[in-house]
Structures are given as C-alpha cells and as structure tokens.
Aconitate hydratase
Amino acid sequence: MTSVDSFKSKSTLTVGGKTYTYYSIAEAEKNGLTGVSRLPGSMKVVLENLLRFEDNRTVTKADIQAVATWLVERTSDHEISYRPARVLMQDFTGVPAVVDLAAMRDATAKLGANPQKINPLVPVDLVIDHSVMVDNFGTPLAFEQNVELEYERNGERYEFLRWGQSAFDNFRVVPPGTGICHQVNLEYLAQTVWTKEEDGETVAYPDTLVGTDSHTTMVNGMAVLGWGVGGIEAEAAMLGQPITMLIPEVVGFKLTGKINEGITATDLVLTVTEMLRKKGVVGKFVEFFGPGLDYLSLEDQATIANMAPEYGATCGYFPVDADTLKFLATTGRDADRVALVEAYSKAQGMFRTTESEDPTTFTSTLELDLSTVVPSLSGPKRPQDRVALKDVTPAFLKALPDLSAGRGDDIAPFTEGAVAGADYTITDGSVVIAAITSCTNTSNPSVLVAAGLVARKARALGLNSKPWVKTSLAPGSQVVTDYLTAAGLQDDLDAIGFNLVGYGCTTCIGNSGPLPQAISDTINEKRLVAASVLSGNRNFEGRVNPDVRANYLASPPLVVAYALLGTLNVDITTEPLGTGSNGQPVYLKDIWPSNHEIAEIVRQHVNADMFRSRYSDVFKGDEHWQGIAVEGSETYGWNGGSTYVQNPPYFEDLTIEPKAVTDIVSARVLALFLDSITTDHISPAGSFKSGTPGGKYLMEHQVAPKDFNSYGARRGNHEVMMRGTFANIRIKNMMLDGVEGGYTLGPDGSQMAIYDAAMAYQSQNTPLVIFAGKEYGTGSSRDWAAKGTNLLGVKAVIAQSFERIHRSNLVGMGVIPLQFMDGDSWQSLGLDGTETVDILNVETIVPRAVVNVKITRADGSVLNVETRCRIDTANELDYFKNGGILHYVLRSLVAA
C-alpha cells in the first residue's frame, strides 16, 4: 500500500461486521480537493485510483489536484497514470499477447535475467470465445459438430494457452464453450467493488479493468469502469505498467421518458450510436444519467455500454443504483459483496436513486427522449448508419449501386440466380445469413426471449425460415440456454432453424462459416449483393462473410423475422413475411411479442440458481479441454513446424540500452486510403483463400485450404498475420483505380499484393509510409493492425484523424502517427502515391509536437506539410524511443 496520502483520504468502512479500508472522496474534498463530490461518477473512479496509488513518482499530488482543477474547464491536457484492477482477454487477442509474454521470457533469459520476472502482476482472465465457427447449423447436432471442429482446428493454440495457464501466475483461462468474454465478465468476473488483502488490511475500491477486446465496455453497464486496449498495452498493464492518459473529457448523455411498446434495447443502442457518432466522442468518456435510467434494466444498460467503440467513446458508463444490486444478486454474487457494493458506492457518492439530482459537471451534454426511439437496423457497412425499419428497403436500394460497384455494367440489379439442386432463386438483397450472435445482445434476456417468442408465434402459424438463409444462435453464456430451455423457447427456435451452434462470438467476428456451396456459387457467378442480418455490433466491409456485401445489425427478434422473410427487397413493416398454414398472410405485427409477455417469461425463468450452477466450476472445461496435455516449463518449447504459434521477431538482437531512433528518409508510399479505414481493413479476422499471401504461405507449409481456419485464429503466427495485413477483400487503395482488395504498386510500378510490395521495399532498405483520411483505425482493439503495419516496414501513418486504440497501438509498436493540420488531406495536397517522404528530427521529437513532413513529387517539386505528432504523452515517447512498449517494459523489468 502506498504511504503517501496528501489529502488524508484513507478511511475505513464497516459492512456486515467486517471493516474495509478505502480512499474516501468526501475526506479528500474536506482536505483540499474542493468540489470533487460534484465530479461525474466515472471521474470519481479515476480520482479514487489516483488517491490510492499516490507515490510521488507515478502519481503525484499535482496529478490528483489536476482532477479537481478539471471542474473549472471540464477538459485538461494533464497526463495521469491510471492502474486498472485487472485485465480481460479473449483468445483472438489473448493468444498473441501470451505469445509476446513467452517471447519476452526467452529474451529475458538471453539477457541473463530470471524469466520469472515476466509474470502478470495484476489478475488476468482469458476467455476462449472467438474460435468457434458456424460450420454446421440448422440441426440438433450443430453444437457438438462445431465443438469437434473447433478443437480439431485449434489444438496447437489451445495447447499453448494451457501451457500459459500453468506457466504464469495470476493468469486464468476460461475454456471454450463457456460464453463470450464480456458476458462472462458481466455475469461472473466483475464485482463492481473489488477487494484486495494488503498489509493486513482488506482494501475496497472500484472494480476497473482494461480488455483486449474493444467491447470490454459492456461491463460499464454495471458501473465497472473498463475499456478496450490493444494486446500490447494490456500486456504492459498486466506487467505492472500504468496506463498513461490525459484526463478525459466527459460527455453526459441524458435519458428521459420511457421506451414504447415493441421497442427493443437494440433499437435504443443503434439510436444512441448514431447520435454520439454525430456529436464526436472519440477519446472521451460518455456517462449516462437522467430519469430514463429508471426504465432501463441493467442488461439494457450493458447493451448500450457494449457499443461504446461503435460510437467512438472510451467508455459508456452507468452509475450504481438499485438495479445494479438486484443484478448482482440475480447472477449469484455473494450477499456480502452486494452489501459492500451498496455501502461503498453510497459512501463515495456514486449511488444513484430516483431522487438523485442530475450531475451537472460534464464537458458537454446531449439528450434523448426514450419514447422517440423507433425500430431500427444499422447498415449496410457501419454500425452508426442507423436506418428506421420502415426505411430499410429504400435505403438498401439507394446503397445498391455502391455495394455492387466493380461487378460490371452487364449485370442488372436483381438478376435472379437459380441455386443448383434447389427450387428457388436468389437476387440482390436476398438475406443469406440470419445470426443471433455477439455480446451486444446476448447479454440481454429481454431480446433473446423476444426472439424466442417470435419463433414460437411463427411456428404456431406455420412459418419457417427461408431455405436460402443460414440461421444460427450463438448465445453469450450457457445460462441463456438454461432459461430458453426452461421457457420452452429453445424448441421453438430449433423448429425454424435457430439451433444452438456454439457459445462464442461467431458471425460478428467473421466466424460465420461458409455458406452452402450452391448458394455461394450462385452469389459469385451472378456477382449478387447478398445480405446478412445479425444481432452483432460490427458490420464492416468484408467482416461477416466474404460472399456477403450488405450487412445489417438488428435485434434478435428482427433477425428471426428477416430469416422468415428472406430478403431486404420487401418492406417488412407492411408486407407479409409469408403464408401461414391456414393459407392466410402473416405479418410482422402478428408474431411480435408484447413487452408484458417478454417480462413475464424473464421473471419466471431467469434466476440466481442458473448462474451459480453454470459458474460453479467455470475454469474446469469439458473433456476436450481437460484432455489437453500441459507442458510445465517456465519458457515455452516453440515448435518450428507449427503454423499457429511462432516466436515473433520483436526481440531479436535486443540490447539493454535502446538504440537511438532515426529520421525517416526517402520513404515510399505503401497506400493512400480514404476515411473510416477500420482495423478489419488493416488486419482482417475472418477467412481467407489460397490465392492470398497468407494462403500461399500455409499451402507451402502443407496446410490444405479447408484447414486455413481464420486470420483471427492464426494471430499467434506472425508469418500469416503480416501477410494478412491490409489484405481485407473490400479495402481500396486509392493508388489504384477501381481495384478492390489488398493491392498496391510495387517498386517497379506494377500492381502486386501489399505484402509482396512491402517485402520488395524491405529488400531495398526503403522505409514506408501510409496516408489516410478521417477516423483511421476504427473498430476492434486489434493489436495486429499495428504489429502487421510495423512488420511490413511502415514507419509512419499520416491521417486526418485517428481512432483512440489504434493510435495508441501504433505508438506501442514504434510507428509514428502524424495528423494533418489546417484541413489538409492527401487529396487536397494532390498526392498520388508516387511521392517520396522525409520526416526529420525524429530523435528530438516531443509529444504532440508540430512535425514537418517533406513530400517530394515524382517531378522533383517539393511540398512541406505541417502535421501534429500523435505521440500524446511522455510515457508514449519512452515507448517509441525503445522501439515499442514491450521493449520498454522488458528492459524495465530486467533492470529492476
């Protein structure tokens, strides 16, 4: 425990006969931190963290005072060091993180130090949830068959994680088939108030975390402050490094009114996402308040919090209230913990009641009357592009020319394609995937029960899913199966094709599995714009399925409804879904459940015993997991023949003292990108084919295309991942005219894969730069988007703006992010990719400095462009000068 307590905040709290030590905001206010009781709740969590970790080195009195000063301007350029209580990982991002830790142990041994210096210093939970694919669907055997395939494909990865579970302290693994990491966090891991035994005291403090998945924010719904970071930043946090950040702005989002009959939490979150994207909240905290909270369940709040990455915020925080306590009890948390949460949050001024005054100390605010929310989808490419349900068909028709670009003028819209061996045809707009998937909605019993009731009513009227629709149900936890089964709704879902396919992220991460071959063939032969409707949070280009160009986010009951309808070309609000067994048309209103029906089933069938039973032995796993042999050494025995796990090159020839950073001279342009390039564009997660650089590598290593798995599953092998960087099938490099996919111009001016061009430039010792537009790096907290960029030899990315996590990840991998100033863009400068670029004085660069970029055109003319260095803090500068954050941490630990 730190011995510094400048504001005399250390206090005690007695709950249920037990005494806890805590750092009181009220006491700190009495002793000099004037006004801090008026801080937004999320900022109180930050303040408490600083009070608790004050040590006159990483946290000073001035840092704490800066939070009180924030109340004056509601913004700050003061940098603080923040230490989360724990780290959460999923396997797509967790495997490469554990690979890095294993590589750091090797490097530590080579430097003559003890490999055990590399060990998590804060609790780490890794939930294996991203590896299951929807290969089999629509049958009672789908779940078992998909599990078998999952273990068959991922045996090397799972052996490696089992080694990590035994080799590292403070590191737990939740085995496959348990649920999505965010729902496991919400239902089991998170406590709202955390405790730790320290120096003979039980210290109570807010539960906080960072996660290697951007949707870590879901747990903000139960007043746990957490957000997504890249794997490299999470590794530093777990190894004891504070997260350095500027004191954030906090945007208050006031909710009033009450949701109308028939409106779902999904409709609400899509509306919130649209509003906050328009406002612009990248890098900011968002905190929800107002009387409308009285009418939202905690699961509704978690749904809204989950999509913070989609609206661009660092977090989407909700206060503790009576519903938080009810949720903790319902999900089986210990009664003593629930009592502590209530007492602690009230003592810290963090407990909201119906009578509470609205907070007033936000940076800015916006407001939504819940009664104005209407049924909605979002798509066809971005989560923030909300479309009212009644407008989906005309909006799709308007988007069709863009979606079909590149297929040729010889194909007219809505050309029918006969499906071989079937008695139906498909066209542009045919829904070929309907998936209840992803953490966004599978945390929320109300929308899952609603989906089950839609299925029940449709089944009773004689409707079924259209035969060309690939249907799937991938719940966020096993508890979902328990309450759907108890209510008899799983039988109804099964009857129309929504059988259980697995417990994991599936379609939302790109693990939708292949479409039936005949349907895939028709789509590709006719170059159709096929559609998916999924209850996920991500619908970026090329993410869901390579055969599907139009992707829409929707609530689970609407996913079921679109499976029944089978097309976007018909207005689902006015036209029949189909003909019932009585020969009469069936409309959406005929099968839509009432709010009362939903609430009654939730009340009857969701209970604490289900949660206690499912989580009683959560780390044990099934017979597949228990049967994996565990290697016991402190360093990993790398298998040179593995195509899943390889020792990465980051620490080759590492020295105790870092080498000086150097100027970037005569760099060539690898790509010119437009706005909203996502981390999916940069480092795709889904499947890939044999003609890609990654596919060619695997075939050279005797891996058949059917066993390629996905980029996400291959993240432990840098050879696959660097070949997959910028390999998204929908990415457009504007150096090439009308070409879709990961291509560029090589050193000789010919078109080639970006990976091949990068390797050709590396052989000539030529550095590379990338130019981009606004919101570069939106989407998932994907460290491989930065790692791959680094391994391709890119030294700087120059963009109009950066998304928060990716900017940090670039710095963490030694890549300089530079931001155009004064409205400049590569388009306004007239760049075409043939230029050379010089970035000088890199050795003396300082955070947020103005950096001159010298651009020399092919004709010899020169442009000097001022940019803003987006290395934002002094700590980030240290990381950059060390070659990356992991190099900095490793050197620090070895020297300790």
About this structure: The first strand starts at residue 10 and ends at 15.
